[in-house]
Amino acid sequence: MAQQHGIIVLFDVENALRTRSLDGNTYWFDNMKLLGSVGVGTEQLVTIVPGTHFLDGSQATEQVLNWLPAALGSIPPTVPRNYLAEQERADDRRTLEELAALGSAGSVSDADLKRLQRRVGKRARKSGSGRGLTEAKLLDVTGKTTTSPGAYNYPAPVITDITGQAVSEKIMYPAQYGSPDMIYDGWYWAATVDTSRPGVYPYTMHVQLHELVEQDDELVWQSVDLTCQSSLKIINDPKRNGFTGAGLGVLPLPSVPAAG
Predict the structure, then answer these.
(1) Which residues have CB under 8 Å from 186's CB, separation 6+?
(2) Enclosing domain of residue 14
(3) Residue 128 has pLDDT above 50, yes or no
(4) Beta strands in the chain (DSSP E)
(5) For 14, how many CA atoms within 13 A lie in the half-sphere containing its CB?
(6) I need a labelling partner for 114 at 20 to 30 A (CA). Which of 1, 19, 42, 73 fits?
(7) Structural Rg of the chain based on CA atoms
(8) Domain assignment of residue 250, yes or no
(9) Is the pTM of this model over 0.90?
């Protein structure tokens, strides 16, 4: 069975949109640090891909990479898919209840109306070239509606392609896959890696961020396409059992003293 490598990429979306660059605005993590990955938590991650053979000399299977993008400082992508919609509905219910209470009191002041207008919040729709963003209220990172520019929750970054030396030299074969995963819209990027050719191979990740702009008195999410880089380091070391340090196989069982 192929070994799974998870690579998480955190994007500082706000600063990346301001500078129109991902340089200095990405933080890469993988689950291979104990086997030699370097630059974990920085934008200079080099992911170790070990092993062309097992300790017994037999050929190892391909390795598999999985990339998971997320926006730094936003609502975590691991919350349920209906979280944002539920927050919107709950906020609408609270606003209607307050409005009904004010109406039954017989008077609604200008201050009350302005407060409720702020509570209702603004909606942002996708632009004509947007990808998969539906009209929704602006929420802050706590899940509450907001009208404050710069304080809203950014949509999750979208990987659109993976290119570069590691791909052109057929070291890895990336592709987008459908999945029942309810976090990343049912799509994720993965790649199989040829472990028979040791060396360091850089690759380029193409990412789409979304920027909120005002257009014809409406708030619109516009796409911004940027790129960032990382590398794979394929080594000769064989895959090892993480518990025993030996080759893959049956885990040793502790000896049990005979019943006396």
Answers:
(1) 178, 179, 180
(2) 4-74+156-235
(3) no
(4) 4-11, 26-30, 46-50, 63-71, 123-126, 136-137, 158-163, 172-178, 187-193, 199-215, 218-235
(5) 9
(6) 73
(7) 25
(8) no
(9) no
CA–CA distance, 232 with 200 (Å, rounded to integer): 6
**Residue keyed to tokens 């030299």:** 169
CA distance 132 to 110: 38
Q: Tokens 């974990």 map to which residue?
A: 40
Whether residue 164 sits in one domain with residue 61:
yes
| Total number of domains in the chain | 2
Residue 11 and residue 122 share a domain: no
Amino acid at 10: L
Cα separation, 71 vs 153, whole angstroms: 9
Which amino acid belongs to residue 222? Q
Cα separation, 200 vs 229, whole angstroms: 13
Closest CA to 5 of 44, 48, 40: 48
Nearest CA-CA partner of 195 in 40, 27, 65:
65
